[in-house]
Amino acid sequence: MTKKKHRKPSHNKISNLTNTILSILKKDRNQSYNYKQIAAKLGVNDASSRNQIIKKLAQLKAKEDIKEIDRGKFQIINNTEYHTGIFDAAQRGNGYVICEDFEDDIYIASNNVNKALNGDEVELYIYKRRKQGKLEGEITKIIKRAKTDYVGIIQIHKGKNFAFVVVDGNKMKTDIFVPINKTKNAEDGDKVLVTMEEWPEKADSPNGKVIKVLGKAGEHNTEIHAILADYGLPYEFPKEVEDYTNTIDLNIKPEEIAKRRDMRKDLTFTIDPKDAKDFDDALSFTVLENGNYEIGIHIADVSHYLQEGTVLDDEAYERATSVYLVDRVVPMLPEILSNRACSLRPHEEKYTFSAVFELDTKANIKNEWFGRTVTYSDARFAYEEAQAIIENKNNTIPAEVSLTGAVYKTDQAIADAVLKMDELAKIMRAQRMRSGAISFDKVEVKFDLDEESNPVGVFFKTSKDANKLIEEFMLLANRKVSEFIGKQKPEKTFVYRVHDEPNEDKLMALQGVVSKFGHKLNFNNKEGIASSLNKLLSDVQGKKEQNLVDTLAIRTMSKAEYTTKNIGHYGLAFDYYSHFTSPIRRYPDVMAHRLLQRYLDGEKSANTEVYQERCKHSSDMEYLATKAERDSIKYMQIRFMQDHQDEEFLGVISGATDWGIYVEIVSNKCEGMVRTRDIKGDYYTFDQEQFALIGQKTKKMYQLGDEVIVKVKQADLIKRHLDFELIGKP
Question: Which pLDDT belongs to residue 331?
């Protein structure tokens, strides 16, 4: 690894010059200053500094932020407006500020960033609109840092008593200066977590200290821990939390059973992924005397063990969600709860919180009941086993899908229950689709890992009837619980899962892309958008553009979030919706359980402000967990491609930018970049209208959706970059 030369802190006393001059002029609006007086206030008198001040004064005058009084003296203009927004850093040191006051993002040149970092909340002022209509600005103050902890590789400068941490990724254009006594004994080349302590006005780099050494860069566990650390996600529980958890009484007690509805004799089973360790939902099935069906959706009663005000509850709230990385799960709850006490394991009695429905043969709801129960799971099935029952219409589980590895017969009553519930689920799903629900069945990329977590294969996970059976009954419970509370008068505080209507601009952009494949969208009304999107998603099934279109269609959607303000769920076409069915892995579900029991007990409404704050925290943590999960997939894709460097692959162009094209390999969904400068035979430029790179001489075009042949050029695990070499078109 090449070492960076030590950069001494800058002694330029006029850094952030715009802000400095405007601050001087703002202190006394009646006083005017010339460039010499401003230089004197800054404590500089060299010709170079004075020239910079003169140049900046001319710029500020041209932008109408200051005015000249007489003989080179200036005053601030009273109507100079400042705005606030979020800084989005670009790769080359420049960036954009996303500001609610303006429709378009404001461009910030690298020399006007003034120590802002990606995600920071900043103050800025806007230049006059230029002829091309673009907005440009300068950041004048950092209001709030998005983060102060960063992951990077430490470079030790031995004998000079300092080190630099080169931050991972391409969004941060400066490294972090660390005195040698704050390196926590890290060795050169280690990946570390560093916290930024201060950024002196005269320094090029912020000062920081190492707070954790993660290990040698490039090693598997180091890189996985680095992903978690980068988002502030823990990978172990504090000792006091583990100690407290070990004191919880996990026994099923007669006095507690007496307070609950006893459903232990009802036929009950779970259907989960074959590698699942925590089973937080089960279904029960009973044929009633009137010919209807009583179906119970039974959820682990986590709130029975997770008491408010305990260190365990505080930790669960802070985590807010389990994090599912490629090779591991970082759970919200310690294993003794998530995999044992709360897990609805077969042939064990468990405390549950249940939604029980009476359905007729057409899946109409005749009765509903909500409350605490005790249940007993008669059997555990993998999705593949339940799918075999549905497809073969019998109770024989073939060896190739059996959890035991051998053929076996399940109880006929369970097979009959699965088949009947599959019928009802299909009716409910059809009803949802008619109501305007959107069917996103995006292909999930999964990896076959060896004992050392090396990826030895890639496979795709698709949703079949067994998955959809579980999905429909979980949706039913989530919808009816939130409806039960949401329709109460007076209104009661609850935790809703909401999803706003799609963004029109994004829909138009999607139309522009899919039209290149011969697809059309209907934007005439809300129902038309939903049915049109469903038709599109159905039409692309199995085609080369499927993953691209699926991804772009999902991006047109607003982001689902938790809130106490119900606006319904657009994607599911529900007026009321919550998360109730996964309290082992989601804190909002725990809150939903607590609130439901509170209202079943006849208590008054909970404090809305408190729960709204908890909702926002849960949404924020879900966002971070999702980003970490995506990063782990990207990391594993790069590891996988390292072993296939000499092979050629068929890919589809999934993105086009000024700096290159993104290509997704058809056979394994790994995505990498072909850089514009590396495409041979011509000089290529980006055409935004056609989503394409076009050769200046040959007019050869590489367009979104085109099939191309690529080869791995570089698979960089440390930087998490996958670069392709373009071979050509097939």
Answer: 96
d(CA 77, CA 67): 6
pLDDT at 238: 96
Nearest to 499 by CA among 383, 578, 426: 578
Query: What is d(CA 719, CA 223) in angstroms, rounded to the nearest whole number?
Result: 10
Place of tokens 């989503």: 691
Cα gap 328→448, rounded to integer Å: 13
User: Residue by residue, what is the 3-state secondary structure of 485-497?
Assistant: HHCCCCCCCCCEE
What are the CA-CA distances from residue 520 to residues 440, 508, 715 (Å)? 18, 11, 37
Backbone angles phi, psi at 228, to 5 degrees: -65, -45
At residue 80, the pLDDT reads 63
Nearest to 472 by CA among 417, 521, 505, 428: 428
Half-sphere exposure of 233 (CA within 13 A, CB side): 28
Cα dihedral value 268, 274, 278, 283, nearest 10: -20
| Identity of the amino acid at 429 | R
C-alpha distances out from residue 73 to 30, 33, 68, 77, 614, Å: 12, 5, 6, 13, 53
What is the predicted pLDDT for the residue at 352? 98
Contact 347, 380 (CB under 8 A): no
Q: Is residue 344 within 8 Å of residue 279, measured between CB atoms?
A: yes
The parts of the chain modelled with pLDDT lower than 70 are: 1-15, 27-29, 78-80, 128-133, 526
C-alpha span between 592 and 299 (Å, rounded): 12
Rounded CA-CA distance 692/706 in Å is: 10
Residue 153: its pLDDT value, please?
A: 96
Rounded-to-integer distance, Cα 351 and Cα 257, Å: 8
The one-letter amino acid code at 359 reads: L
Give the ranges where 365-464 is alpha helix by DSSP (H). Answer: 383-392, 412-434
Please tell me the distance from the alpha carbon of residue 215 to that of residue 211, in angstroms, as a whole number. 13
Q: Is the pTM of this model over 0.70?
A: yes
- pLDDT at position 538: 87
SS3 percent helix, strand, coil of the chain, rounded to 5, is 30, 30, 40
Q: How far apart are CA 469 and CA 7, in angstroms?
A: 61
> Could you give the CA distance from residue 345 to residue 252 in angstroms, rounded to a whole number?
14
Query: Are the C-beta atoms of 57 and 74 separated by less than 8 Å?
Result: yes
Distance, in Å, from the CA atom of 45 to the CA atom of 39, rounded to the nearest integer, reads 6
pLDDT of residue 688: 81
- Paired with 351 in beta bridges are 374
Residue 663's beta-bridge partner residues? Answer: 653, 672
Contact 75, 32 (CB under 8 A): yes
The Cα 163–Cα 4 span in angstroms is 10
Q: Render 94-141 in DSSP notation, one character per residue.
A: -EEEE-TT-SSPEEE-GGG-TT--TT-EEEEEEPPPPTT---EEEEEE
Measured between alpha carbons, how far is 590 from 495 in angstroms, rounded to an integer?
A: 10
Dist. CA 673–CA 99, nearest whole Å = 30
- Per DSSP, 619 falls in state H
pLDDT tens profile 372-411 = 999 999 999 999 999 999 999 999 999 999 999 999 999 9
